[in-house]
Specification:
The protein is of the alpha/beta class. Helix content is 42%, strand content 13%. It is built from ten helices and eight strands. The strands form two sheets. A five-stranded mixed beta sheet has the order 1-2-3-5-7, with helices on both faces. The protein has a three-stranded parallel beta sheet with strand order 4-6-8. A hairpin with a 4-residue loop joins strand 1 and strand 2. The longest helix has 16 residues.
């Protein structure tokens, strides 16, 4: 990657590979990577940068130490909330993450509770270590579910199952999470991060402009009519045909060789 990479605070360790894969590690291990104000602002700055970059091809999230993210740090001196515009809802950052134009992957290496679980559900894919814990704890504290979980969870696992998990606030068993499609199958022979990186490397070689168009169409289709969806597909196809990757895909098929996509 040639363009200047912004500097992030120590609470968010950002690694940028030449392939365009960016790995962001939440780095408050002494607090199980709970959100304080500094980490909230750093995550939002990262999402903003990735969204504007033409060179980032995949974004991977994970956590330092023995947890992914335990939600809000209720003891933090820096208790700033999520940054937002004057007329934006508090958790608009979740929409920004959900709709990022690049593939997003979360490697859950321990506890993902409350807002940490909410963040993971905003990613396209989730891998879990065998010791990972998925905790929708809002009801246990009489807190309204937030971090977009009232949209992501029912869309991922269905209405009744989502309500049951949110009502009870109990740990979601990993086998139930796998069977419902919430997470990828758990592989005890390797780490969640290794699996996430393997998928990221594969996706980074793909036609990322087409990925962005596909994600946009799929998200909008979740609340659209069939007519709306085919209209958006037609528009996306027109945009895809303008890219060099489209031409390369057709050319490589005719030449019977693997394509060499550039993301443009």
């Amino acid at each position: 990657m040639n363009r200047e990479i912004p500097t992030f605070p120590d609470v968010l360790d950002v690694n940028v590979q030449s392939t365009g894969v960016v790995t962001a590690t939440l780095n408050r291990p002494e607090k199980l990577n709970a959100y304080n104000g500094e980490l909230r602002y750093a995550i939002c700055d990262l999402i903003d940068w990735v969204g504007k970059s033409k060179e980032v091809r995949v974004l991977v999230f994970t956590g330092a130490g023995r947890g992914f993210c335990s939600g809000a740090d209720l003891t933090a001196e820096d208790a700033r909330g999520w940054p937002r515009g004057r007329n934006d809802p508090e958790f608009i950052w979740c929409v920004n993450l959900l709709q990022l134009s690049v593939p997003t992957i979360c490697a859950i290496n321990g506890v993902a509770a409350g807002g940490g679980l909410g963040m993971a559900l905003c990613c396209d894919f989730r891998y879990c270590d065998p010791e990972a814990r998925l905790l929708p704890v809002w009801a246990k504290r009489a807190i309204h579910p937030d971090d977009l979980v009232t949209w992501t969870l029912p869309h991922l696992v269905g209405y009744s199952r989502a309500l049951k998990w949110l009502y009870l606030g109990e740990e979601i068993p990993l086998d139930a999470a796998v069977s419902s499609g919430l997470i990828e199958p758990v592989d005890k022979t390797t780490t969640a991060l290794a699996q996430a990186q393997a998928l990221a490397n594969r996706l980074a070689e793909g036609p990322t402009t087409q990925f962005a168009l596909t994600k946009q169409a799929v998200i909008k289709a979740l609340n659209a009519s069939p007519w709306d969806s085919v209209t958006l597909e037609s528009w996306g196809q027109d945009q895809a045909r303008k890219t060099s990757d489209f031409k390369e895909g057709i050319r490589s098929f005719r030449e019977k060789r693997p394509p060499q996509f550039k993301g443009s």
